[in-house]
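agent> Task received from the user: take the single chain below, predict its 3D structure, and emit structure tokens. No templates, no multimer pairing.
agent> Plan: (1) validate residues, (2) run structure prediction, (3) serialize to tokens, (4) report one or two observations.
agent> Step 1 OK, no nonstandard residues flagged.
tool_call: predict_structure(input=
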Amino acid sequence: MSNKLIEHGQNLALIIDKPILKKLKFDKNTDLELVVEDNALIIRPCKRSEKKPHTDSDEEIDKIGDEILEKYKSVFDRLSKS
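)
tool_result: status=success, residues=82
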């Protein structure tokens, strides 16, 4: 089977046909691991233990988000009532 990449915003995307997705048991919620070996792209489901753990940078982003929510609380409240 041959396929081409398509433009998706500023990225390129690969469309995987439904029969292939069904055979691989992939759906939109499947976490995928992408590996390049010998100039080939290998796509496989992530094992639960291989998922990226929560890192310090994630905590820093959460803190910044909390600060923004607190600073603009009145704006968000007004927007939620619109």
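agent> Step 4: summary for the user.
Strands lie at 5-8, 11-14, 32-37, 40-45.
agent> Done.
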